[in-house]
Design goal:
Bound molecules: S-adenosylmethionine
Order of helices and strands: HHHEHEHEEHEHHHEE
Distance between the termini: 23 Å
CATH superfamily: Vaccinia Virus protein VP39
Helix content: 40-55%
Enzyme class: transferase
Keywords: Methyltransferase, S-adenosyl-L-methionine, Transferase
Strand content: 15-25%
Family: Belongs to the methyltransferase superfamily. YrrT family.
CATH topology: Rossmann fold
Radius of gyration: 16 Å
Structural class: alpha/beta
GO molecular function, one term: S-adenosylmethionine-dependent methyltransferase activity
Function: Could be a S-adenosyl-L-methionine-dependent methyltransferase.
């Protein structure tokens, strides 16, 4: 679910890595400290890791580098091909945040970077409920993504981007399902997670949610 953006990613796959390296001025601030953000998410993960929205495999690389056992889920065929070419032995599935094949065993953490905003807030709730059922107490969700503090923060960011003349970025911010910390905190807590947020650049926050008790 939340697959309406897949054609865009099939097209973007070819030059995605140029964008994240800061070569596209419009998205430079979104991907500021991209490598550091991925590294941090990987370091916060543990054990057997389920990764959603693997893209070209940049977070996957960090996870593998730390010796994690990784199960990847990616709905874009072109993105999957890119990642498969880098990590031939990776368990990589066609799926999305909510619908994905059965995994061979229990997992200890669920990670994702720059992707959770493809779900509406209702879909985010469905996803976190599902992960709450999958994880044992102490299991973790570690996501990094663009999030707004609140609606005022969102409006201010739209104003800045408009002033910068970044029409594509503005369109993304207005049309994709970017949410607020308030909404995310509520979703995680309702489903039995204790969550912490840390701001990593002007757009991106890391959220680290630890499963407290079985629901
Ligand atoms: C901006 S890229 C991020 C890729 C990688 N995680 C990174 O940090 O570079 C977003 C990825 O999420 C994938 N995606 C889009 N909708 C999705 C969904 N509903 N469930 C899982 N992944 C999704 C896209 O195909 C794309 O590969």
């Amino acid at each position: 679910m939340g697959r309406e953006f897949i054609p865009l990613f099939d097209e973007w796959a070819e030059f995605y890595d140029e964008t994240v390296s800061g070569q596209d001025a419009e998205y430079k601030d979104v991907f500021e400290n991209y490598e550091g953000i991925l590294k941090l998410v990987a370091q916060k993960s543990k054990g057997r890791v389920l990764e959603f929205g693997v893209g070209t495999g940049n977070l996957t690389e960090k996870l593998i580098g730390l010796g994690r056992e990784v199960y990847g889920v990616e709905p874009s065929k072109v993105m999957r091909e890119k990642t498969k070419a880098r990590f031939m032995n990776l368990e990589l599935y066609d799926g999305d945040f909510i619908q994905f094949p059965n995994l061979p065993g229990k997992i200890d953490s669920i990670v994702s970077t720059y992707a959770f905003h493809h779900l509406t807030d209702d879909e985010k709730d469905t996803a976190i409920k599902l992960y709450s059922e999958m994880l044992e107490t102490g299991g973790k969700i570690v996501f990094a993504d663009t999030v707004f503090l609140n609606e005022r923060d969102r409006n201010e960011r739209h104003r800045i981007v408009k002033e910068q003349g970044y029409e594509n970025l503005l369109k993304d911010l207005q049309s994709e399902h970017y949410t607020t910390l308030e909404v995310l905190k509520q979703i995680f807590e309702i489903h039995g997670f204790q969550v912490n947020f840390e701001k990593l650049n002007s757009y991106v926050w890391v959220m680290e949610a630890v499963k407290e008790n079985k629901k």
